[in-house]
Structure formats: C-alpha cells, structure tokens
C-alpha cells in the first residue's frame, strides 16, 4: 500500500510538471561564477603577490572553471578583512581571503576589534611556512640583539594585534631589547618605504619568503640586517639569526613565545567563510593542492621569487584550532606582552 502511495505521488508530480530538483553539483554551482580572492593588506606586499598569483592559476583546477579576481581589503592589520569573512562574506565558496597569519593569535588574545572566530573558517591551504623576521636597514646602529639591548632602534608596525607589534613587544619584554615601536603603517609596502626614507630603522615582522619575493635587491645588496627570527626552529638560510624563542629565560615565557611563533606554519594561508557547503570546501581544497603542483603556477612563482612549501587545508585547520584553544595562563601572559602591559 505504501509503495502504491509513493508511485501515485510521483505520477501526480510528473503530471503537474513539478519533480524534485536534482542536487546541484559543485561544477554546476561554480560554472559562470566569479570567485574573489580578497587580500587583507594594501597592494605591493607578499600577501598581495601570492593572492594575485593564485587568482591567475587556481581557476583551472576548480570544477566549473569559475573566473577568479583579486582585490585588496586593507584595514587594522588584517582585522577588517577577517571580520568581513566571518560575518559579511557570502557563504557559498565564492569569497576567499588571504588571512594575515597572526589573526588566530589576535583572536586567542582577544585583541581589540576582533569579532571573528578563525576556527570556524573553512581553511583551504597554506603556501609556505617561512619564518618571520624582525629586521633593520644596514644603516642602523643596531646590528645584533645585544646592540638592541643597549641602544634604541625605531621599528615600524601596523599597531597592536599585528605581528609587527607583537614580536617587537615580546622582544622588549622577554628579551630586554629597547625597540621603540612606531605604529600606524597600513601595510608592508608602507613600512619598507619608511625604512628607505630613514623614518624608521626597521620593521617588526616580515616573512623571509616575503623579503625574497618583494625585495631581492635589498638582499643582494646586503641592505638588511635580520636581528630576530620568529619560528620554532632556525631556518637553513638564516643559521646565525637567533630565534625569539631563544630570548626567553623561563618556562612560561617559552610557552608564550611558542604561541607567538606557532602561526609561522600558516604564514600565507587561504580561507573561505564559515557555512560553505562541504562539497565546495572539498573542491576548493583539492583545487588549491593541485595548483601548488601546477607547472605553470610553479614557473611563475619561481620567476617572482615566491617560495612554495604548501600545507593542506586540513592541517591548517588543526593548527588554527590549537592556537585559539591555548591554555588561559599562556594566553594571559601573551596578551600582556603584545600590549606592553605588566603582569
């Protein structure tokens, strides 16, 4: 009897011209669409170079071959774009963001203006795990960490919540350096210009990979002195540059610096908004993985000096969750450090 009712219902639906719609495939959804890769900093820096590089190559690997465009969305050291991805971006897979690497940390430390939950993003992949560097121009009197403990050097920063601020403040409060932090710079290209003009001695954060891709002439001409690297181990290219971790003198501070350094494993990561259907997230992740192996992509990356050492979206998701769920005492101490507060 039940089978008769189902058959009768199907016959009536067909007769009326109303049949249940077949589920839309990922390729059908993306076909004819435009995906936007948003970049949370101004044009000219390493995030911008990488975002636009992805926009030129990733479309070939997404089902339905959608168009991809890149646009800059600067503000508050990446917080504006991170908030946008969480609350305002389309939740259909057409909105991607090159997330500033310190955003999970900014969330964990409850930095001002943070309204996003980075563990709720759908992370697509990460292009490199390059260490960050606190660097000065070779014209600076400060050439080593020991120099920085004896004399002042001015360091450009976007402001509290940014890596350029957090790493420099940590060096001061954990390592005893005397860096004077100058805030308000909109992005890396602005900081580089300020360094060239002599307005500041250096900048508080830039990835080694970013220096190589955006300022190869500075490296070749030895215009930079790298004072501290932020990572969990020294990079092979920088064996004589001390880790921020090595400046810590007690267990709590070592845990704090490990927290501050953990996001170097996701230094150039791409994410889409919460709530995107799982099949589209999967398609975007696999398209990203394929792009990282694409000969045309790798050829252009090499020409532009962009290093490629990818981490999967699934692994990035785990790292982000570990950062935001760090034990409270470590987060409290880290928060005091990046704000320059006393315990």
Description of the molecule:
The protein folds into 2 domains: 168 residues, D-Maltodextrin-Binding Protein, domain 2, CATH 3.40.190.150; 139 residues, D-Maltodextrin-Binding Protein, domain 2. The chain has 343 residues and is an alpha/beta fold. The longest helix has 15 residues. The N terminus is likely disordered. A 6-stranded mixed beta sheet has the order 2-1-3-10-4-11, sandwiched between helices.
- Which parts are unreliable, with pLDDT below 50 for 5 consecutive residues or more? 1-21
CATH level 3 topology of the largest domain: D-Maltodextrin-Binding Protein, domain 2
SS-derived structural category:
alpha/beta
The percent of residues in helical segments reads 40-55%
Mean pLDDT across all amino acids: 91
Distance N to C terminus: 75 Å
Provide the CATH top-level class of the largest domain: Alpha Beta
Strand content bin:
15-25%
User: CATH-wise, what's the superfamily of the largest domain?
Assistant: Bordetella uptake gene, domain 1
- Number of E strands: 11
Largest sheet: 6 strands, mixed
Radius of gyration computed on alpha carbons: 23 Å
Write the element-wise H/E pattern from the N-terminal end onward.
HHEHEHEHEEHEHEHEHHEHEHHEHH
Instruction: Count the DSSP helices.
Output: 15
- The figure for the number of domains is 2
> Looking across the biggest beta sheet, what order are the strands in?
2-1-3-10-4-11
